[in-house]
DNA sequence: ATAACTGCAAAACATTTGCTCACAC
DNA sequence: GTGTGAGCAAATGTTTTGCAGTTAT
């Protein structure tokens, strides 16, 4: 059932991408298919170079420029989110829908990234934006911390 | 009295920088003095190039490399905060103390930046980090939004 | 057919660094 | 005097782009 779930998930992502591309008059090409597959198989937050390596393992003819171009495209189509963890490069993560919205807690010592979701936080952010006279369209939130030492 | 406050404020910032430099065995040079002055006169969130322009207006011999080196130094000394508003470059803002901690609401249509502070948010972030087993050392939060249209 | 897409290499940016000289202490 | 800091220019790392050829529709 787990396998089935994953299979459905991938098919879902691919067909959603295909639908969105068609809708916008864009082509479903081999590079885009491969990149979409790599994204749906990735549970982490790869940067462009890491995506490039994973994509090359499947089709070595795909270029880094295409990774960047496709990430920009997928971002506009709300298929991926671009993240910034404070090192100089952009990270990308698949965005299946509003239901898997989350934030990141980054261990500044190990670089480890923990994802979390907090409804209270969501409500508060929306309220703050509203109070300032804004409709919230996006937000960045990253917490940086060190693992708390147990008191002996 | 407002004028007096500002005068005290600026002097405070400058001497604080000088004190911190001395404390760390660093030298108070002309470039550092000029950059400190520009920072304390800046109410906005300039990037390196903008700082460079403002600094050059006072002393044209100061180089961009020195802006970067000094920003890194001042960041380590907790004199400035480095911010990322999603365009590719770092922004800097003076940090007078923990009391003027705040976040940013960015108008995605005009690029306007509104600063805000919310105690509830501070508490919540600390609690989230704590629940995840972390001691919060830093955080990034930016809200992106569009001005809400009044319902006629 | 033909417009969108790609790879490649070069360009564009922001930022960092090596080197030599200058200056604060 | 001595080591820290500066300017300059070259290097770096990431992301973008021009161009000429390729491919999906």
Automatic annotation (TrEMBL), chains A, B:
Cofactor(s) required for function per UniProt: Mn(2+); Fe(2+)
Chain positions recorded as Fe cation binding sites: 101, 122, 139
Chief location bin: cytoplasm
Keywords: Cytoplasm, DNA-binding, Iron, Metal-binding, Repressor, Transcription, Transcription regulation, Zinc
Gene Ontology cellular component annotations, sorted alphabetically: cytosol
InterPro entries from the UniProt entry: FUR (IPR002481), Fur_C (IPR043135), WH-like_DNA-bd_sf (IPR036388), WH_DNA-bd_sf (IPR036390)
Pfam families according to UniProt: FUR
UniProt KW Coiled coil keyword: no
Location in or out of the cell: Cytoplasm
A GO molecular-function annotation: zinc ion binding
CDD domains: Fur_like
GO BP term (any one): regulation of secondary metabolite biosynthetic process
Entry's cofactor comment: Binds 1 Mn(2+) or Fe(2+) ion per subunit.
PANTHER family found in the cross-reference section: FERRIC UPTAKE REGULATION PROTEIN, ZINC UPTAKE REGULATION PROTEIN
Subunit structure: Homodimer.
Family designation: Belongs to the Fur family.
Protein's name in the database: Ferric uptake regulation protein
Taxonomic source organism: Thalassobaculum fulvum
Gene name linked to the record: fur
């Amino acid at each position: 059932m787990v396998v089935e779930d994953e299979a459905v998930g991938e098919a879902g992502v691919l067909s959603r991408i295909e639908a969105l591309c068609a809708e916008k008059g864009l082509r479903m090409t081999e590079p885009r298919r491969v990149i979409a597959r790599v994204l749906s198989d990735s549970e982490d937050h790869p940067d462009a170079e890491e995506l490039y390596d994973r994509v090359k393992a499947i089709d070595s003819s795909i270029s880094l420029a295409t990774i960047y171009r496709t990430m920009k495209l997928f971002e506009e189509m709300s298929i991926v989110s671009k993240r910034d963890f404070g090192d100089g490069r952009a990270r990308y993560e698949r965005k299946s829908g509003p239901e898997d919205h989350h934030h990141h807690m980054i261990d500044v010592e190990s670089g480890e990234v923990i994802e979390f979701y907090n409804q209270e936080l969501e409500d508060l952010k929306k309220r703050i934006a509203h109070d300032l006279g804004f409709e919230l369209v996006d937000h960045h939130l990253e917490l940086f911390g060190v693992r708390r030492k147990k008191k002996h």
